[in-house]
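Posting for a labmate who doesn't have an account.
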Amino acid sequence: MARLIPERFNLEDPEAVAFCTGCGAPFARLVEACVTCGSEEILPRDELLVRLEAQQDESRALAEPVELIALPTEAEAEPVRAALEAAGIRWTEQPDVADGRLFAPAEPALRFFVETRDLERAEAALDETAPPDL
C-alpha cells in the first residue's frame, strides 16, 4: 500500500466525497479512475481519513528518529519516498517551519526522518537513486 501524502488532499472541500491517492484530485462522486492522472486508486473521504490517521500514528511510532535528508521541494521528495518504500524502510516527514525567522523559506523544505537503526540502509537506498555526478 503506497504512502499517502496528506498535503495533496484538500479535505476542506465540502463537495469532495472521494480523492485520488495518486494526485490528490477531489471528486464530487465516487469514480473508477482519476481524470487528472489516470490512477484507479480512488478512496472515499471516510476511508482516506482513516488511512491518513493510521499513517500519522505509524509515523509517530518511530522510536529513535534521525534526520535522513532535507529537500527544498515536493518534486524532489517523490524519489526519496519511492526509494524508502522500495527498501521497506519506515519514515516520517516534517515540513520546515520558520523557526523564529521573520519569513518562512520561499519553498518549504521537507525533512525526512528514519529510525536510527535504518539510517545506513536508507542512505544506501538513496545513493542507488541518485543521478551520477558529472
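Reply:
Got it, the C-alpha cells are right above this. The beta strands are 18-20, 26-27, 42-44, 65-71, 91-95, 110-115.
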